[in-house]
Design brief:
The complex is a heterodimer. Chain A is an alpha+beta fold. Chain A has 15 helices and ten strands. Chain A starts with a helix and ends with a helix. The chains are: A alpha+beta, B alpha/beta.
C-alpha cells in the first residue's frame, strides 16, 4: 500500500468526527487506527498502533530491547546514576517524541503532536496524541499527562533540551501539573559519545549509518511546522499522515537505537568499526574500566585502516598500559610509533621518561631527549607551542646531563 | 590654589571673562535629614550604622514609605543624592522578610547593570544574608542561566534582554514571575522616543505575564531631572505613579559659567574650536590639581582632548579617559582612582553621566552642549562635594543648539528641564509587541493591550495568518519567533546592517540604519560616521539589506539631497491665528534621494557630488504644519518666499530639539510654496519615525514659544547671510534668506502678540 492510498483512506474516514469512543476505524492492517477522544475539557485525536514484539525495525526486532536489560546497563547508556524503582524496567519505560509548530522553542511554540511508545502485555504500543486546533491542546495534555506520570523512565532523542522543556511549558500554560520523571535517558547524548565521528548525529543519520533503516517518502523535519499551519487552514487530515508516519518512525528508531547501544555496551557486538572501537575505549577509560579500555583500543588498532585514527589509538593505548603498569607493552607501542616516523615528539619524550624514571638509564634517556629536540627543531614552523615544548625538553636535557655526570 | 582661589583668579582673566555670556551663582542648600524608618529590618539598620548612616535624606524616606504602601513611585533626583538606596531599601527589606520575594531591575544598558551590581553586592555582602543577585544579559554564561532563573532574588537586566530573552521564555522563570514584588526601572528619563515607546510595550507584556502567574509588582522608577517624570513613568508602566521630587540631599554653592569661543569666520559664523577651548580651560584647573571632569559628545573627542591634555600637563597630574569600549576592569580601576583621589582629571563621554559611582569632583567642564537641559544638569552635578564650592563651565560649539543656549542663558536657568516624550500606541511599535505578546500568551476575547482597538489589531493579524482565532482566544500561529525580528532601538523592523570590510576576512557589523534613512545615509560612496571614525560605503546590497563599508580618512562628509513629497492623510487639530494657521495630523512622506554633495569639514565648501539611484521610500508619520497668510505671497516674489520658507524650516528644525529632548535627526522638515491641502505657503515638520513618537504633537502645542525663540536666536546669530547653525548656508537659502526669514518671523509674531 503506497502513501497516496493511505492518504485517501485516512481522508475518507475523517467523517467520523463525532465524539465518544464508539467509532473505531481500522483503516487497514497496515495503516493507522485513530479515534476522537473526549474528556471534560474537550476533544482531540489519538492514533494507536500495536506492534508485536517480533516486529523488526532496522537492525533488531523490538524483542531485543528487554534482553539483558538491567539497571547497570541502563545507567551506562544514560551515563548517570540509577534511582530506585519498584517496577520492572521495560514496563516502566516510555519513549517520547514530539512534533512542534516551531524549532526555536519559546512559549509560542506548541507541540501539536506527541508520540509515545511503551510495552504492555507482550506488545509494543505507539500512541500519538494530536491536537487538530488550539482548543484541543488542554484535553490532549490532560490525557497524556496521566500516561507520562505512569512511568518513571523516559527515553528521548534530544528531549533534554527540546521535547520535555516544551511539554513542561505547555503544561504550565494550561495550568496543569508537571510529571516528574525519575530518569531521563536522552539518546542523543548517548549516541554522541559513541558516534561523534559521524558528520551528523541526527536520528536520520544514525538510521542510515548505524541502524540499517531507510525511510521511504519521509518529510524533512523543518517542513513540519509549515505543513501543520496549512492543515489548520484546510483541516484536511490526510496532510498530516506524513507527519504521523515520521513521528512513528522516530519512536521505533528510538527503540532500535536503545537496543543497539545496549548490545554494544554489553560487548555483544563483534563487528564494530575501528572508530567505534576507539570511542568505546574512550568511554571505558572514562568509566575507569582500564582493562576493557585496553581491549577496545587494541582491537581498534588492529582493524584500523586510517593512519590518523590508528596513531590516536596507539597514543591512548600506551597511556593505559602505563596506567596499569604494563610498561614493556607501552614501550613496544612507542617504538612502533617511532618507526612510523611521524612528526610527533610524543614517543621520544615517553621513551625518555621511561628510561629516566623506570630504568634509570640516563644515557639512553638523553639520547631520546636529543632526538626529540632534533625532531622539534626540524618541524619548528609547524609546531604550535614550540616554545613551551622546547623549554620542557631543554629542562629535561639539563637534568639528565647532571644525572649522567653524577654517575 | 583651592577652588575658591581659582574662582577669583578666573574673574581676573579678562580674556576669559570676555567670552562669558552668563555667570550664574547658585546657592548651596542644607540637607534635609530624617530618622531611619523604624519598620526597617534590624539587619539593614545595622549595616547602615556600620556605614555611619544614622539618618536618611528626606526623599529617601518618602520613597521608602510610598513603596512600602504598594504605591508605584518615581524618584527624581540629581546626581549623587543617594537614589539607589530609594529602591534598594524596600527591595532588600522585603526579601529579608520573605525569602521567596523577587525583584527585577532594569537598566538601559548592559554596562550600567554591571555598575549597579557591584554597588548592590557591597550592601548584600555587608548584610551577610543569602540574597542572590545576578545580572542576566547577553553576556551571561549559558551554564549560569538555569540557576539564575530559579534562584535569583534580584535579577538585573536590560529591556532588550527582557524583550527577547526572558518574556518569550517565561515558563522557565516561574519562580520569578510568581513572586515578583518589585520592578525597578532606573534612568527612566532615557526611555524616550522610539526606545521608550518600545519599552512601554515591553512593560505591558511583562504585566500580562505577571498577571498570568498571579503577581502584581510595585514599580519603582528613578529619573534624572526632567519636566515630566510623573507623566513619563506613568505612560511607561501604564499606571498611576507617585512623584518624589523634593531632594533632601545637601549641596554646596555652584558657579555655572557659559563660555562662547570667539568667531573666527564671520561669513560662515564659525567659532574657534570648542575642543581646543575646553582643553585650554581644563588645563588651568588641572595644573592646580583641582579634580576636574570634562564631558565630551563623542568617543573620538574624548580621545582628542585626552591626548591634548596629556601633552601639556605637569608630571604628577594623572588624567584618564573614560568611555564605552574600554574594558570593564579598566573602567572599574578608573572609577576607583577617581573615588580615592589618585586620578585628578577624567575626560569622558556621557558614560559617566549616569549612575556610575565615581565620588564627587570639584569642576565639571561640558565640552559642547550635551543636547538637553536634563543632561547638562546631570553632567554639571558630577562636580560638588558635600558643602564645598564647585564650578561648572559649558563651552559652546558653533552648532545652533549650543549657540541658542549660551546666548539665551535665562532660557536654560529658568526653564524646567525638557519633557521626555513617548508614544506607546505608535501603531507600528504596538503591532510588533502585540505579536510578541500573543507568542507569550494567547489573547483572550475582550483583553486589552494598552488600546481599545486591541481586538481590531488581533483580527488583522488573524487575517494575515499570524494569529489563529479559536474558541474565544487568539493563538500565535507562525513558525517565527517574533521578538527576534524586533529591535527596541528602532521603529521599523527592516533595518539595514552596516558591515565593515576594512579588514579582509573578518567583516563585522558596526551599525544599523533604519529603512527610511538608507537613501540619505548609506547610498554608495556615502561617508558613514561611526564612533568618530569615517567609513565610505563601497557597496549597498538593497535586497540583502546590507551596506559594505571601508574605513577612510577624508576631510569631507556627504550630504544627500532628498526630494520629499508630503501629503496629509488626517488632520487631528487646528488653530487659526492672525497671520498663519497651525495644524497637526497624520501624513505620508515619500522621499527620493536624487544626488549627494561632498561637503568639506569646517568650511562647508562643496567639493564634489554624485548621483543616487535608489527606490523611493514611503513613511506614515505625524507632522505639525504651519500655513502662512496669502498676504505674504503678494509681498514677496515666489523665489524669495520659497527661500524664506526654507530658511525658516531649517531654523525651526535646529531650534526645536530644545523643547523636545530629542536629537536634531529625530525630526525633519519640508516646505510647499502652495500646499494642495492648505492652499497656502506651508512649512511641515514631521517625526522621522514611522507612526511618529509624539514630537510633532508637542510642537503644535508650543508653536508660539518655538517661533519666539527662533526669532530671538536668529537676531543674535553672528553670521552675515545665513549659516548651517541658523537658516542654512547662503548657497542653500540665497543671499537674502536670513533677512527674509527674519521678516516672516517678525510679521507672524507681531500678529499674535497684538492679537
Amino acid at each position: 500500500m503506497n502513501l497516496r492510498d493511505k492518504l485517501n483512506k485516512l481522508e475518507k474516514n475523517d467523517t467520523t468526527r463525532e465524539p465518544k469512543e464508539k467509532n473505531i476505524d481500522y483503516l487497514n492492517k497496515d495503516a493507522f487506527l485513530y479515534k476522537i477522544m473526549e474528556n471534560e475539557h474537550g476533544v482531540y485525536l489519538k492514533t494507536t498502533k500495536t506492534y508485536p514484539l517480533k516486529y523488526k525495525h532496522g537492525l533488531y526486532e523490538i524483542n531485543k530491547f528487554s534482553m539483558q536489560l538491567d539497571s547497570d546497563i541502563l545507567t551506562t547508556i544514560a551515563n548517570t546514576n540509577y534511582p530506585e524503582f519498584n517496577r520492572e524496567i521495560s514496563n516502566n519505560i516510555l519513549f517520547i517524541d514530539t512534533e512542534t509548530t516551531g524549532l526555536m522553542g519559546g512559549t509560542g511554540t506548541v507541540s501539536f503532536l506527541i508520540g509515545i511508545g511503551y510495552f504492555e502485555n507482550q506488545d509494543f504500543i505507539v500512541e500519538q496524541y494530536l491536537m487538530r486546533d488550539y482548543d484541543e491542546e488542554t484535553p490532549m495534555l490532560i490525557d497524556i499527562k496521566d500516561k507520562l506520570t505512569n512511568h518513571d523512565i523516559v527515553v528521548s532523542f534530544n528531549g533534554k533540551s527540546f521535547d520535555l522543556p516544551l511539554i513542561k511549558t505547555r503544561l504550565i500554560l494550561n495550568r496543569l501539573k508537571r510529571p516528574d520523571f525519575k530518569l531521563h535517558v536522552d539518546l542523543l547524548h548517548s549516541a554522541r559519545r559513541l558516534w561523534s565521528f559521524l558528520d551528523s548525529c541526527s536520528l536520520n543519520s544514525l538510521e542510515e549509518n548505524i541502524l540499517d533503516f531507510e525511510r521511504m517518502d519521509d518529510i524533512p523535519g523543518h517542513l513540519i511546522p509549515g505543513l501543520y499551519f496549512e492543515f489548520l487552514q484546510n483541516k484536511d487530515l490526510k496532510q498530516l499522515v506524513p507527519i504521523l508516519e515520521h513521528n512513528r518512525y522516530d519512536i521505533l528508531s528510538l527503540v532500535t537505537l536503545f537496543s543497539h547501544l545496549k548490545e554494544i555496551h554489553l560487548d555483544n557486538i563483534e563487528n564494530l568499526t575501528a572508530h567505534e572501537l576507539y570511542q568505546m575505549g574512550r568511554i571505558r577509560e572514562k568509566d575507569k574500566n582500564y582493562e576493557s579500555c585496553i581491549t577496545y583500543l587494541e582491537k581498534s588498532i588492529k582493524n584500523s585502516e586510517q593512519k590518523h585514527l590508528e596513531y590516536k589509538a596507539m597514543k591512548k593505548l600506551s597511556w593505559q598500559y602505563k596506567r596499569v603498569d604494563r610498561h614493556q607493552e607501552a614501550v613496544q607501542i612507542w617504538q612502533a610509533m617511532i618507526k612510523k616516523s611521524s612528526l610527533d615528539i610524543f614517543p621520544y619524550v615517553e621513551m625518555a621518561k621511561f628510561f629516566e624514571h623506570r630504568e634509570k638509564d640516563y644515557e639512553k634517556a638523553l639520547t631520546y631527549t636529543n632526538q626529540a629536540i632534533e625532531l622539534l627543531e626540524k618541524n619548528r614552523v609547524i609546531t604550535n607551542n614550540y616554545k613551551k615544548e622546547r623549554d620542557a625538553l631543554e629542562h629535561r636535557k639539563e637534568r639528565l646531563i647532571k644525572k649522567t655526570c653524577k654517575r | 590654589m583651592n577652588i575658591e582661589q581659582m574662582k577669583s583668579s578666573l574673574l581676573n582673566r579678562p580674556k576669559f571673562m570676555n567670552r562669558i555670556t552668563a555667570w550664574k551663582e547658585i546657592e548651596g542648600r542644607a540637607g534635609k535629614f530624617v530618622n531611619i524608618p523604624t519598620q526597617l529590618d534590624t539587619r539593614i539598620k545595622k549595616i547602615l550604622e556600620e556605614k555611619n548612616i544614622d539618618k536618611l535624606y528626606s526623599h529617601q524616606k518618602i520613597a521608602y514609605e510610598l513603596v512600602e504602601n504598594k504605591k508605584n513611585t518615581v524618584v527624581v533626583t540629581p546626581t549623587a543624592s543617594g537614589k539607589t538606596l530609594c529602591y534598594n531599601l524596600p527591595v532588600l527589606n522585603s526579601i529579608l522578610k520573605d525569602d521567596n520575594n523577587r525583584a527585577l531591575y532594569l537598566f538601559p544598558t548592559k554596562a550600567l547593570s554591571q555598575d549597579q551590581l557591584s554597588g548592590l553586592y557591597e550592601l548584600i555582602r555587608a548584610l551577610d544574608e543569602d540574597i542572590k543577585t545576578y545580572t542576566y544579559d547577553g553576556d551571561t554564561q549559558v551554564s549560569a542561566r538555569k540557576s539564575i532563573r530559579q534562584a535569583g532574588h534580584i535579577v538585573i537586566t536590560n529591556p532588550d534582554m527582557l524583550h527577547v530573552g526572558i518574556l518569550p521564555h517565561h515558563t522557565k522563570w516561574i519562580k520569578l514571575f510568581e513572586n515578583l514584588k518589585y520592578v525597578v526601572i532606573d534612568e527612566v528619563h532615557s526611555y524616550r522616543g522610539v526606545f521608550g515607546s518600545h519599552v512601554a510595550n515591553v512593560i505591558r507584556r511583562l504585566k500580562r505575564i505577571c498577571n498570568f502567574y498571579g503577581s502584581n509588582p510595585v514599580f519603582i522608577c528613578a529619573s534624572a531631572t526632567i519636566d515630566n517624570p510623573g507623566e513619563l513613568s506613568s505612560k511607561l508602566i501604564g499606571e498611576e505613579v507617585e512623584v518624589v521630587d523634593k531632594n533632601g540631599a545637601p549641596a554646596g554653592p555652584r558657579d555655572f559659567i557659559f563660555y562662547n569661543p570667539p568667531v573666527v569666520n564671520k561669513e560662515l559664523g564659525i567659532r574657534r574650536s570648542y575642543v581646543l577651548e575646553s582643553k585650554k580651560i581644563a588645563s588651568i584647573f588641572l595644573k592646580n590639581k583641582i579634580k576636574t571632569i570634562i564631558f565630551t559628545r563623542s568617543r573620538l573627542r574624548t580621545e582628542i582632548i585626552l591626548s591634548y591634555l596629556r601633552d601639556d600637563k605637569p608630571q604628577d597630574v594623572n588624567i584618564r579617559g573614560y568611555r564605552g569600549g574600554y574594558l570593564p576592569n579598566e573602567r572599574r580601576q578608573i572609577e576607583k582612582g577617581l573615588r580615592e583621589g589618585d586620578i585628578h582629571g577624567v575626560v569622558s563621554t556621557n558614560a559617566l553621566e549616569l549612575g556610575v559611582d565615581i565620588g564627587q569632583l570639584d569642576v565639571s567642564i561640558l565640552a559642547g552642549y550635551p543636547g538637553t537641559i536634563a543632561s547638562s544638569w546631570q553632567q554639571a552635578g558630577r562636580a560638588g562635594r558635600g558643602q564645598k564650592r564647585s564650578i561648572s563651565i559649558l563651552i559652546a560649539s558653533s552648532s545652533a543648539l549650543d549657540q541658542y543656549i549660551v546666548n539665551n542663558p535665562e532660557y536654560f536657568f529658568e526653564q524646567p528641564a525638557e519633557s521626555a516624550l513617548i508614544n506607546p500606541n505608535n501603531l507600528m511599535i504596538l503591532l510588533s509587541h502585540i505579536k510578541c505578546a500573543a507568542f507569550e500568551l494567547p489573547f483572550e476575547e475582550g483583553e486589552q493591550f494598552g488600546v481599545e482597538t486591541t481586538e481590531e489589531i488581533l483580527r488583522y493579524l488573524e487575517e494575515n495568518n499570524v494569529l489563529r482565532y479559536k474558541s474565544g482566544k487568539w493563538y500565535w500561529s507562525a513558525e517565527r519567533y517574533p521578538a527576534e525580528d524586533i529591535s527596541l532601538r528602532s521603529a521599523s523592523s527592516d533595518d539595514f546592517a552596516v558591515v565593515d570590510r576594512t579588514k579582509t576576512g573578518s567583516p563585522r557589523v558596526i551599525g544599523r540604519v533604519d529603512y527610511f534613512s538608507v537613501p540619505t545615509t548609506i547610498h554608495e560612496d556615502a561617508i558613514y560616521i561611526h564612533e568618530g571614525k569615517q567609513y565610505q560605503v563601497k557597496e549597498l546590497d538593497y535586497d540583502g539589506k546590507k551596506a559594505y563599508v571601508k574605513e577612510v580618512d577624508v576631510n569631507f562628509y556627504t550630504d544627500a539631497n532628498l526630494a520629499v513629497d508630503l501629503s496629509i492623510l488626517d488632520q487631528f487639530d487646528k488653530k487659526k491665528l492672525s497671520k498663519r494657521n497651525s495644524e497637526h495630523g497624520e501624513v505620508v512622506v515619500s522621499a527620493q534621494a536624487t544626488m549627494y554633495k561632498k561637503v568639506k569639514f569646517n568650511t562647508h565648501e562643496n567639493v564634489g557630488y554624485g548621483d543616487i539611484n535608489l527606490p523611493e521610500v514611503e513613511m506614515h508619520t505625524t507632522a505639525w504644519w504651519m500655513s502662512l497668510d496669502h498676504t505674504f505671497e503678494a509681498e514677496l516674489n515666489k523665489k524669495v518666499l520659497e527661500n524664506a520658507l526654507l530658511g525658516l524650516s531649517n531654523l525651526l528644525v535646529n531650534i526645536a530639539p530644545i523643547y523636545l529632548m530629542c536629537d536634531p535627526g529625530d525630526i525633519n522638515s519640508t516646505v510647499q510654496i502652495r500646499s494642495p491641502f492648505t492652499g497656502k505657503p506651508t512649512i511641515f515638520i514631521y517625526d522621522s519615525y514611522p507612526g511618529g513618537v509624539g514630537l510633532s504633537e508637542k510642537l503644535f502645542r508650543i508653536d508660539y514659544k518655538l517661533l519666539q525663540s527662533a526669532y530671538k536666536y536668529l537676531n543674535k546669530c553672528p553670521c552675515e547671510g545665513g549659516c548651517p547653525a541658523c537658516v542654512g548656508p547662503v548657497n542653500e537659502v540665497g543671499m537674502n534668506g536670513k533677512e527674509k526669514t527674519l521678516y516672516l518671523l517678525k510679521e507672524v509674531l507681531k500678529g499674535e502678540s497684538e492679537g
